[in-house]
Amino acid sequence: MTASATKNTYRATIILDLRGVTDSVETLLARLKEILTGLGAAVLREESLGQKDFVRVTDRKNPSGIYVQITFEGPASVPVAFREKLRLDRTIKRILVQSA
């Protein structure tokens, strides 16, 4: 078995910034899952954690965000490609991908 054929499990925690967006959280979650499957990952679980206040507020006009978690399985190249796809997306405030 080669290193590129091995599948790892990852958990992505994403903070959404929905200011000026008319889409619902479920629609954005479906779009994120579609991006992951397009990169060759299998989505195992997704969960909306709801709106939470930030510990350190960098913008007084935006003191909170909507947190979502997606657990997926895929090759080691998927987390980097996923972050790169979402880098310029205005609805994504932060993204953290951890090995689960």
Secondary-structure map with pairings?
Blueprint: E1 8-16, H1 25-38, E2 42-53, E3 64-74, H2 78-86, E4 92-99
Antiparallel strand pairs: 1-3, 1-4, 2-3
Q: How many separate structural domains?
A: 1
C-alpha Rg (nearest Å): 14 Å
Q: Might you state the CATH topology name?
A: Alpha-Beta Plaits
Largest sheet: 4 strands, antiparallel
Spell the H/E element sequence: EHEEHE
Corresponding CATH architecture: 2-Layer Sandwich
Structure notes:
With 100 residues, the protein is of the alpha+beta class. It has a single domain, classed as Alpha-Beta Plaits. 23% of the residues lie in helices and 40% in strands. The chain is built from two helices and four strands. The protein has helices at 25-38, 78-86; strands at residues 8-16, 42-53, 64-74, 92-99. The protein starts with 7 loop residues before the first strand and ends with a strand. 15% of the residues are buried.
